[in-house]
Amino acid sequence: MTIAQKGQVVRWSRIEHGTWRLHVAATERGLCYIGSPDMPFEQLEAWVSARMPGAALVRDDAALAPYARELTEYLDGARRTFEAPVDMKGTAFQQAVWQALLGIPYGETRSYSEIAALVDRPSAMRAVGAAIGANPVLVCVPCHRVVGKSGAMTGYRGGLEMKTRLLELERGVRV
């Protein structure tokens, strides 16, 4: 858990692009949150309250515009990687898992056991799953690219429908 400094501001916006409706948020350091589709503002509010107690949430569409642009380009199939900075706070293990996710190429998937091996914890698939589930920046840190060892769809904070849509988008299927 991160303790917010007095006066910390988390800026947020809502992206509405095609059938996608997502809340996004950023600190002065970068993107810190992408929500699940069609979830209420209260989901973002609860996330900020739990991880940055005392931080002020301020709607600022202009400040979030660069993040929204990259995300909508991705959703249009025109972007494969993200360049905007992220501000992800987590344990050293979570950070290692999130870095491993960033190494999964666009349009490919990896299993939980492959990610566990990448972070030198080959028997820690459940811990890897928990770290993946704690990823606050859906899409940009591509946890949707992690599937079961058999290739089966498994849990996803954004829901299995979102995970399926993102994987189909990356495979060139019109979503």
From TrEMBL:
<keyword id="KW-0489">Methyltransferase</keyword>
<keyword id="KW-0808">Transferase</keyword>
<keyword id="KW-0234">DNA repair</keyword>
<dbReference type="InterPro" id="IPR001497">
    <property type="entry name" value="MethylDNA_cys_MeTrfase_AS"/>
</dbReference>
<dbReference type="InterPro" id="IPR036388">
    <property type="entry name" value="WH-like_DNA-bd_sf"/>
</dbReference>
<dbReference type="GO" id="GO:0032259">
    <property type="term" value="P:methylation"/>
</dbReference>
<dbReference type="InterPro" id="IPR008332">
    <property type="entry name" value="MethylG_MeTrfase_N"/>
</dbReference>
<feature type="domain" description="Methylguanine DNA methyltransferase ribonuclease-like">
    <location>
        <begin position="15"/>
        <end position="87"/>
    </location>
</feature>
<dbReference type="GO" id="GO:0006281">
    <property type="term" value="P:DNA repair"/>
</dbReference>
<comment type="similarity">
    <text>Belongs to the MGMT family.</text>
</comment>
<dbReference type="Pfam" id="PF02870">
    <property type="entry name" value="Methyltransf_1N"/>
</dbReference>
<dbReference type="Pfam" id="PF01035">
    <property type="entry name" value="DNA_binding_1"/>
</dbReference>
<feature type="domain" description="Methylated-DNA-[protein]-cysteine S-methyltransferase DNA binding">
    <location>
        <begin position="92"/>
        <end position="171"/>
    </location>
</feature>
<protein>
    <recommendedName>
        <fullName>methylated-DNA--[protein]-cysteine S-methyltransferase</fullName>
        <ecNumber>2.1.1.63</ecNumber>
    </recommendedName>
</protein>
<dbReference type="InterPro" id="IPR036631">
    <property type="entry name" value="MGMT_N_sf"/>
</dbReference>
<dbReference type="InterPro" id="IPR014048">
    <property type="entry name" value="MethylDNA_cys_MeTrfase_DNA-bd"/>
</dbReference>
<keyword id="KW-0227">DNA damage</keyword>
<dbReference type="GO" id="GO:0003908">
    <property type="term" value="F:methylated-DNA-[protein]-cysteine S-methyltransferase activity"/>
</dbReference>
<dbReference type="InterPro" id="IPR036217">
    <property type="entry name" value="MethylDNA_cys_MeTrfase_DNAb"/>
</dbReference>
